[in-house]
Amino acid sequence: MLENPRSPRVRAVAKLTKRAARVESGLFLLEGPQAVSEALQWRPDAVVELFGTPTAWERYPHIGEAAEAAGVPSEFVSEAVLAAMADTVTPQGLIAVAQQFPSSMKQIFADNPRLIAICEEVRDPGNLGTIIRAADAAGADAVVLTGRTVDLYNPKVVRATTGSLFHLPISVGGDLVSVRQRAHEAGLRIIAADVKGQDLLEARAAGTLAEPTAWLFGNEAHGLTDEDLELADLALRLPIYGSAESLNLATAASVCLYESAFAQRAASE
Fold first, then answer.
1. Rounded CA gap, 150 and 125, in Å?
2. DSSP per residue, 189-202
């Protein structure tokens, strides 16, 4: 049982809360039973090791069984050790170390996708994680991260995906020009979500949203640049019926992705 919060092994795990350590090692942290359980179910090959308090092992026996079945080394740790490893203030008893597994952008577009989310300079970890979760829920084929978008393996991003990180392909590090070219070669229309765009309801009525689509979402503060918008085939805005100044990025992205999901499924029936 690990009991010393200052031991080299504990410090090595704790360093993964920092981007530099994640880049250098190719590893990242999973915190809590939900994330760990999803990883063991969907990507057990990526899980390197698992740590848990005695209370957590008793509370979530299925996780210990899944780790054993996958051959993942597991170890008891004290509450103090878990707190030293974790990124959260109140960790939930379980932490795993996993290998990063970004998907190839080339492969994503080679698989004939019909719905993709492109995130260009999305900086808030919670927003990015929620967009990934929404894309997963809407049945999107993939998520593509471009520009200076926050690190996919940031602990806050990982938590916000609530396991969707393991459900669909996600590529990182691409530039928008290259993504545009690959999207067009794959037959997708790039639709930018932007307040300066046309009314989304008009596009819905015209049947535009039933076509293979790559939605483009920009920065929370300043949205998409004029250069970004020039790379899109179309820009659409969500109507605001109340007095709100705007919608949160992740909320708007969720609506856009579901609008496409509804339209595409209706067209295929």
1. 6
2. EEEEEEEEEEEHHH
The pLDDT, as a whole number, for residue 269 is 74
Architecture in CATH of 8-99: 2-Layer Sandwich (3.30)
**Hey, where are the domains in the chain?**
8-99, 105-268
DSSP for residue 122: -
What's the whole-number mean pLDDT along residues 166-177? 95
For residues 96 and 74, what is the distance between their CA atoms, to the nearest angstrom?
9
Q: Which residues of 229-254 are buried (b: 16+ CB within 10 A; e: fewer)?
A: bebbbbbbbbeeeeeeeebebbebbb
pLDDT of residue 268: 84
H or E element at residue 180: helix 176-185
Q: How confident is the prediction for the chain on average, in pLDDT? A: 95
